[in-house]
């Protein structure tokens, strides 16, 4: 008997299962605190419902089949479509409707690191009149979930596709909406393809090099929200009002790990305004931990042009992977060892700095010899020691010792921090 699983499927073993359970608890806590009603949409839908988002092309990316009665059905590929169908059918719901969900989904994706054919998402959606407060609420709640999971290094990148589309329409004078969408799609491909490959692809599609280059250059506009908005105003970009309001609301709510990036356009067929993605700054390879934005087009297809919608979905598997990486740093991941009593103040400053950078660490109480401190650290399974003495104090450096390999290197403190973050 063949005991293997179909391609892209895997068993969720106990260690991973318990991390998923922790993600679920964080999600449910935040859903309750932020006043979202938790429900679960059906796992199986009519294919026509699943096609509402991006047309028949979606068939290639999902599990679609005929049931024994000959009906065209498909497994849900996210929770958003089902929740939106549910809300659009329920005219009795009080608005704004705040609905959340947690569950499995199936995509006929090419399996790779952090990408499966069966995976799980948490999901937060808000339906009602369009309001940037709702976008802020969803971003704030998503950030709160990631914080509860101890993911210290997440960066939330926010864009607005109306700004990009407006630039393509007004500055590049592209009047055909389909061509505008095609050009925007290039921004979504930047991380997967080289500029050369994009040039070839877009010249085959009839775009000039200049058009593509200008869109890609616009996508480079990223960084601190104030800086991006200032530059956008210098460039005369339109439709930036919501980004400005969003910056103010998030700031007053204390959500500070936010960058603006016009490269973020996400699922082009679907989103209509502010869009965002959160990444793990310590593991960019993993792709987005969660993402979302405003998608007014979908309620319209489901017969509710009166409803505006915004939401976010988080990848449970990816967040669990980030948690493992964070945990593998261990409670005493970086032990600061002080070689001389006079350098103890500097050793404390080094400890404060690494903690501020999100690296867990500790410092031995004064009085122990350096040899004894390192011996204790080795016994506790600490993998890195930051040795600080008079020499290091004078140079504002540290001696970084790889405890497993027994190697040492003198480095400026900021280089040592970077090394630890990337370890
Ligand atoms: P999306 O529904 O495509 O906006 O994705 C939302 C989140 O779900 C992403 O940020 C990922 O964390 C996660 N995700 C999407 N597709 C997959 C997949 N095939 N495997 C694992 N996680 C996924």
In terms of structural class, how would the helical and strand content be classed? alpha+beta
Structure summary, number of beta strands: 17
Largest sheet: 9 strands, mixed
Strand content: 15-25%
Q: In a nutshell, what does this entry contain?
A:
The protein is an alpha+beta fold and 423 residues long.
Task: Describe the model.
It is a single chain. With 423 residues, the protein is α+β, with helices and mostly antiparallel strands. It contains 16 helices and 17 strands. It has helices spanning 14-33, 47-50, 80-89, 132-148, 161-170, 177-189, 195-204, 209-219, 225-234, 241-252, 297-301, 316-328, 344-356, 370-379, 390-395, 413-421, and strands at 37-38, 44-46, 64-66, 72-75, 97-106, 118-128, 154-160, 222-223, 258-261, 274-280, 288-294, 308-315, 334-338, 361-363, 384-388, 397-402, 407-412. The protein has a nine-stranded mixed beta sheet with strand order 1-5-6-12-11-10-7-9-8, sandwiched between helices. Strand 13, helix 13 (344-356) and strand 14 form a beta-alpha-beta unit. Helix 1 runs antiparallel to helix 4 (132-148), helix 5 packs across helix 6 and helix 6 (177-189) packs across helix 8. The longest helix has 20 residues, at 14-33. The model has no long low-confidence stretch (mean pLDDT 93).
